[in-house]
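Field reference: "sequence" (input) and "structure" (output). Example, Protein Rf1, mitochondrial-like:
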Amino acid sequence: MRPTRFLALPSTSFSPATSSSPSAEKTIGRTKPYLTDSALIERCRSNALTVEDALDLFDAAVAADPKPSIYAINLLLGAIAGMKHYPIVISLCNKLNVLSGIQPNIHTYSIVINSCCRMSSVNLGFGFLGGLLKRSFSPRTAIFNSLINGLGADKRVAEAAMLFDKMSLMGCEPNVVSCNALIKGLCNTGSTALALELHQKMAMMGESCMPDVITYNTIIHHLCKEGHVSYACKLLDEMIRVGVKPDVRTYNSIIYGHSTLGHWKEAVGILKEMMHWHLSPDVVTFSMLMDSFSKCDKTAEAHKLLDLMKERGEKPDVIPYTILVRGYCQEGHLADARRVFDSMLAKGPAPSSHTYSVLINGCVKNQKLDEAIELFNKMQREGVKPDIITYSTILDGLCHLGKIEDVRGLLDEMMSQGIHPDVVTYTSIMCGFCRLGKWKEAHQLLYEMIEQQIHLDAVTFTALIDAICKEGMVQEAHGLLEVMICRGIEPDIVTYNTLMDGYCVVGKLNDAVRVFDLMVSKGYEPDAFTYNILIDSYCKSGKIDDALSLFNAMPHKGVKHTVIIYNAMLAGLYRVGRVAEAEKLCGKMLAAGICPSLHTYNIILDGLCKNQYIDEAMKLFQGVLSSNVNLDIVCFNTMIDGFIKAGRFKAAKNIFNTIPTKDLKPDAITFNIMVNGLMKEGLFDEATNLLLHMEKSGCPANSTTFNTGLLEKEEI
């Protein structure tokens, strides 16, 4: 039972009854107190008011005589709603309905209906609306706004739109808040196009419905989330043109949109525009930009943004620091990641469980498991509790090193801490066991998952099938597919593609075709990846006509050709010497608007050189060099090797000398090709000098260098 807290009321709230007080009523041995309106209003407006205080005030109010006004009671209910104790608001309002002396008014109903909607009980809100109408009150626009908001939050947007349309019939004209509520609901359910239609109509609905910053922010935010950043930028321009001033949230949404698409330069441009309008970027702005930089392997630039943030007086939280740790780890700069992490330990903010997990993952991916385990132990000493992601990361690292006993021990520790492995954890471990050839342990874990009633899905089985296929055990993988079907888990197209690819890798093309036929019989339409697997395998098996037949069938099946599929076909045609057909296919690719990739150029140059079309290869090579395409060292190696084998060593040497001018460095393959060429030309001194240069450039000679060059010439 909740005790009465008289300290919640100022001492002036109660007037003691005496024999000379005519307003005092005699009760059992004492008089009934009264609570003045001014005292109640003063307490409601106090920043120190707690929910316990509010409940005591309500009890005192209903017990007082005379009763406080409904205005004061509404202030009290509003204060409780402001603390987000919505069920209490509803309970107290129900009490008012059965009390005499304090009658709810339209504002009371507005507060309670809003509370219902905010606690996702919009149907209860409509119940109070019915009570309001029974009392002959006319609902206000604010009440409809609350209900539209509630319906939108409940994803009942069609009902929200109907209520919006009925407002005028019930004597309430929609305002900008009504429109914004409906726009928010439409956007949250993926109907951004309808939200845009409503936005366009708002200006014609009267002065009270003119779009404001909330209207624009809501639509811009969802457009950016859906990847329609260019349209969001047009809305930003419109916003400025009609005199609605963008705020930090507007620009943050557009920066977020550019960042998710990897457009870091555009994101920086928006930051500059934001500062041009004298809007100060906040921690969220900087964090999104840092995230964009780090995802584009520009973590050092992201680090400069952190420094700028601190210079501007912003206090970075743990998120931007964690972004830097993740970025440096992804780029392989583990020492830089560790320095950022250590600065957090020394100066704050304290690393979170997620920060530890990111750094531990970086250590595991960079083959530094000892450091990962040391960090894992450290976080526990620091009082940071590892989560399922932390445990899964360490377990994955242990699997890669083949430490099966340690995996089992850590699994037991994890469960003793009340953290139960999920389907992702088990799948990761099982794949690790498969890579190590520990099939017995992998199957044991599979049955353990079944016993613990962990939901096995297509993703789990597909991951296992993929791991087993990569070990060359395709028949076992096919057996797992049958187990999957027996358990009522329907394989998806990724599962079938994985098994097909496994058969193709081990040269069992006929079995791959049988899996393809099974997939089609199950009603699955082959995708581009399916066709690529078979076309590539046909080409590598020399069955070019079969590959072309599949290639030509793709458009009729509604599947578009990709640059990867063109690459497979081109490589196959050049491999069997059908150069003219390869050239035609290349022209068809360009006509279809598909841009050649760097790998495409490598395939064409290699195909031309191996088929003795050296001059054609040189013409293409020079044309590409003069364009905006940045060729890699593989292309140069292909050309040098082709010219040496064609007996044109001087031209090969000229290409070799061009490499530094293209900001490239020769690799071991480049040097091996050149050394072999020099040996064949009898230029032993030059070969020796090149070997010395090779050592100085940090690219030491390997077994191929000696086998193909020096030993062939008996230069022991």
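The domain at 627-715 is CATH 1.25.40.10 (Serine Threonine Protein Phosphatase 5, Tetratricopeptide repeat).
Confidence is low (pLDDT under 50) at residues 1-31.
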